[in-house]
């Protein structure tokens, strides 16, 4: 499977989850938590598509995208469970997911710096 396909699949899953979470936030449950999970999912889905389109330019973009995807999924899953079941996914799942997202964006920045310093 091409590197880009993994990120496109993750983008599709996050986009679908984001729309479903936004709908759930407007129809009940804990709207604040569900809306946050929706916003994170919908913000990162197009970012993953962008990384997929650039993934051939830098080997760092796949791990960056995977960190973003997994971090977002973990964070959103934790918020969703808190909103619907009243309990966390597992202890520290939201902070671990948040760290994954932050790390993913840092790796994106590093990839950009590496790309900018290449000759040719």
What does this structure look like?
Keywords: Membrane, Signal, Transmembrane, Transmembrane helix. This is DUF423 domain-containing protein. It comes from Georhizobium profundi. Pfam families: DUF423 (PF04241). With 120 residues, the protein is mainly alpha-helical. The chain has one domain. The chain contains four helices and no strands. Helix 1 packs antiparallel against helix 2 (31-54), helix 1 runs parallel beside helix 3 and helix 3 (61-84) packs antiparallel against helix 4. It is elongated, with a radius of gyration of 15 Å. 37% of the residues are buried. The mean pLDDT is 94.
Produce a short descriptive summary.
The chain crosses the membrane at residues 32-53, 60-77, 89-116. This protein is an all-alpha fold.
Unreliable sequence segments: none
What class would the helix/strand composition place it in?
mainly alpha
Radius of gyration: 15 Å
Counted by DSSP, the helix tally is 4
Quick one: overall form? elongated
Q: Strand percentage, roughly?
A: under 5%
**Main sheet overview:** none
Helix-strand string: HHHH
Q: How far do the termini sit from each other?
A: 28 Å
Look at the structure and give the mean pLDDT.
94
- Write down how many β-strands occur, each being a DSSP E stretch of 2 or more residues: 0
Protein name: DUF423 domain-containing protein
Keywords: Membrane, Signal, Transmembrane, Transmembrane helix
Signal peptide: 1-22
Organism: Georhizobium profundi
């Amino acid at each position: 499977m091409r590197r880009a396909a993994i990120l496109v699949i993750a983008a599709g899953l996050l986009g679908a989850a984001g729309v479903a979470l936004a709908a759930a936030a407007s129809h009940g449950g804990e709207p604040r938590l569900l809306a946050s999970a929706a916003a994170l999912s919908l913000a990162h889905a197009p970012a993953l598509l962008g990384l997929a389109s650039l993934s051939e330019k830098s080997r760092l973009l796949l791990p960056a995208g995977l960190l973003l995807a997994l971090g977002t999924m973990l964070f959103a899953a934790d918020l969703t469970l808190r909103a619907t079941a009243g309990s966390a996914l597992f202890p520290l799942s939201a902070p671990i997911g948040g760290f994954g997202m932050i790390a993913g964006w840092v790796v994106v920045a590093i990839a950009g710096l590496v790309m900018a310093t290449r000759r040719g």
